[in-house]
Amino acid sequence: MIAILLGPPGAGKGTYSAKLVNTFRIPQISTGDILRANVKEGTELGKKAKDYMDKGLLVPDELIVDLVEDRIKADDCKNGFLLDGFPRTVEQADALGGIFKKNKLSLDGVINIIVDRDVLFKRLTGRRMCKACGGNYNIYTLPPKADGKCDRCGGELYQRNDDKPETIENRLNVYEKQTAPLIAYYKKQGNLTDITASEGSIDDIVRNITAVLKK
Ligand code: AMP
């Protein structure tokens, strides 16, 4: 199964993906996670991407597309994959279409996660991540058992630079301008389904997404 999770920052794409990968037994491909790992390791890509990321801007398409193509060709993607945070521009979506064509792959579905803006703000300001394993928490909605520590590995939790209030506004505007046009793009292709996720438990939302993808 090949699917895309589309939605603004704070919609919960990473949280839902972490559960969906167990159900469908396919990897999650998060370009944000890949970029953060590169920043942490101080690679050339990481050095080029860091400034854009800290400002809440998109990293240029040419730094992202090849990286995704390489990742998709890896062995663990043979039964499909879940794209989280890619594509984020119409140009990236066109490039992805080209990659699918070249590799004889086809897209099964696009899930458009809809969340009210005030809820997004709260989710983003409350989000904490594990420095060691990348696990996702939220001090309001999904707190760790012990303050500041990852339940899974005991790693230290931190707030992403781009989850600071001054950058969040920017990221949401960038989403509206550059990524939201993909809703019409995939609707036109006939494989987009809206899922509202402002309310309800994470498990309920994941159940709704799963039902759509299993159809
Ligand atoms: P995310 O974890 O998906 O919110 O991504 C964090 C940051 O990484 C974004 O604000 C962008 O700066 C960058 N990024 C992630 N994915 C992409 C993408 N597909 N295209 C451009 N920039 C991206």
Characterize this entry briefly.
The protein has 215 residues and is an alpha/beta fold.
Description of the structure:
By secondary structure, the chain is α/β, with parallel strands linked by helices. It has one domain: Rossmann fold. 50% of the residues lie in helices and 15% in strands. The strands form 2 sheets. It has a 5-stranded parallel sheet with strand order 2-3-1-4-8, sandwiched between helices. The model has no long low-confidence stretch (mean pLDDT 95). The structure holds adenosine monophosphate.
CATH topology: Rossmann fold
Main beta sheet strand tally, sense and closure: 5 strands, parallel
Bound molecules: adenosine monophosphate
Class by SSE composition:
alpha/beta
The sequence of SSEs as H and E is: EHEHHHEHEHEEEHHEH
User: Which superfamily, in CATH terms, is the homologous superfamily?
Assistant: P-loop containing nucleotide triphosphate hydrolases
Assembly type of the shown chains?
single chain
Number of helices: 9
Shape: globular
What's the pLDDT, averaged over the residues? 95
Number of strands: 8
Indicate the CATH architecture.
Answer: 3-Layer(aba) Sandwich
Assess the beta-strand content as a share of residues: 5-15%
The top-level CATH class is Alpha Beta
Instruction: Indicate how many domains the architecture comprises.
Output: 1
Q: What is the helix fraction of residues, given as a range? A: 40-55%
Q: Cα distance, first to last residue?
A: 11 Å
Radius of gyration: 16 Å
Low-confidence parts: none
